[in-house]
Amino acid sequence: MIAEEFAREEIVRLGALLHRNELVHGAEGNLSARVGRERIIVTPAGLPKESLHPAQLLAVTAAGELADRQTPAAARLRPSTELPMHLGCYRQRTDVHAVVHAHPPNLVAWSMASEALPAARFPNLGVTAVAERSASAHHRAIAALIGQHDAILLRGHGSLTVARDLATAYALLAALERAAARAHPS
Ligand SMILES: [Zn+2]
User: Fold this and answer.
1) Which of 27, 86, 111, 116 falls between 20 and 30 A from 37, CA-CA?
2) CATH says 4-182 is which class?
3) Helices (H) and strands (E) in the chain, counts
4) What is the whole-number distance in angstroms between the Cα of residue 159 and the centre of ligand 1?
5) Separation of 135 CA from ligand 1 center, angstroms?
6) The sheet that has 151-154: what strands, in order across it?
7) Does the reported pTM lie above 0.90?
């Protein structure tokens, strides 16, 4: 499990990195960490990732309800609308304590290309079958893959990477996006 104070700092640090490395734009993308059996820290909806403050992150229960002990800075904020996707990962994977969702341009470009990603270079990447439009369709597609994969490419949308800690989930995303950039679809 990750200590809450450290989780808040890491989410802010890696949110800024996501922005700087163009893996998200503006308020896109979201990060979370499990800091207790019933407590998850998650980025708020609508705020850009480049300038978050640790106190602006929200604490939610495993069911996605707002938890006790919010900071005053989070009082008017709401959790990311993509929170259910994160909660699904925590429910299915007790070994996972961090989830990063981003919109990495090269991976998304590959997910839309007719040609498949070279499987040898992406052995652990699960890819959803179709460009799902609804959130619930996304969740079903993720649930089918997350048991076997630490990285999922949501076709036409973005990436989901999970790990024991935030830095590892971020590093996995960054490595996949670098590999996708090198193997750009023709
Ligand atoms: Zn998204």
Assistant:
1) 27
2) alpha beta
3) 5, 7
4) 8
5) 10
6) 58-60, 39-42, 30-36, 98-102, 158-163, 151-154, 125-127
7) yes
